[in-house]
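Working notes for the structural subgroup meeting. M.R. asked for a predicted model of this chain before we commit to crystallization trials. I am recording the input and output together here so anyone reviewing the notebook later can reproduce the run.

Input as submitted:
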Amino acid sequence: MDNEASEEIVRTRLRHWFAPIVDEPSWRSNLVDAQAEQLLNWGMAQVEQTAVHSQRLPDEDANPLLEKGSTAVRLIMAGVNDLIGTIGKEPEFDLVDDTMTRLLKNLRWLTNQPLRPDNLRRVSQFNQARETEDREAAFQHLLALIQTDAP
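Returned structure, recorded in token form:
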């Protein structure tokens, strides 16, 4: 398979698996446009990384990997959106903790790796920004929290 064919496979798979995420409102309803763009770029990098790693696999082998990756990305993006949506509202019983737990579980599912040591610090920083109702700082702490080794 030549380079051009490999690149076309990556583009096709990225379109197929990432386009439904872009069209879904559940990941951006609580974000300002600049935040949504940053989160969208993060999500695309994650799905693209899976598409690149699976480019030499036939579709029947690549599709389960891409489905898992795109589902995890969609759930993480929705979790970030939901957590930002809690800022400035009276916290419902354990809603923030439950949402953060789901986000972290989905991050582990996406990366197939244990959480990084600095994740606890990022969660604490998010909680502090949330308490002071600093939406931008809270978002940036969440964005740092979900960073992986994807380019």
